Sequence to fold (225 residues):
Amino acid sequence: MLERLKDKKILFLEDNIDFALNTISLLQVFVKTVHHAQTISEANSVLITRAIDFIICDIKLKNENGLDFIRDFRKHDTKMPIVIISGHKDEEFLFRAIPLGLTAYLLKPIKYEMLIDTLKRCLELIELKHLEKIELKNGWFFDSKNRCMEKESLVYTLNKKESLFAELLSKNRDRLITKDMINVMVWQSEDMSDSALTNFILRFRRRFGKDIIFTIPDVGFRLNT
Fold:
């Protein structure tokens, strides 16, 4: 699978030169090009002049915040895989970052196994981005362009919440989808009661099969692949 990364190009925003050089040497084993930037201004210049497939960004830069860079970038590109790296785990930051659609959050020093898993995930998202129809479960496909679910000759147009939920499922096929993620990505931070979420899931299952998603009690859901 990793051989399909050989033509990919990364923007790597990192201001620690020693860490950057070591990480770039490792990344170059798997990808075609790593464009290194030390500041947000340099990163934006790369985005303007170069074709980029995904971004790796340190969250704490000198006098700058990588989260601000990602937030601005997401205003015009909601699908590119973005990986953030940090020297320490910050639960409050993670919650604030949920709406930004991050692919992974890696802690320094980056473990080799975690990097490989993350690169695979980025590749999956890159390839999914070019697909209009993504298979979910039991023959159902989510058509991301027309915002509908299809199965053989059946076509169901999705309302806004259903479409956002189907997109969330398609982007996290092998991962847990927490209630917080649904609140931010589907309800878009509007008030989401437990009963509203329960009724929404019941309706979704009634339409597309009760086994399309698996419930993890008190935590969230996962696509039942």
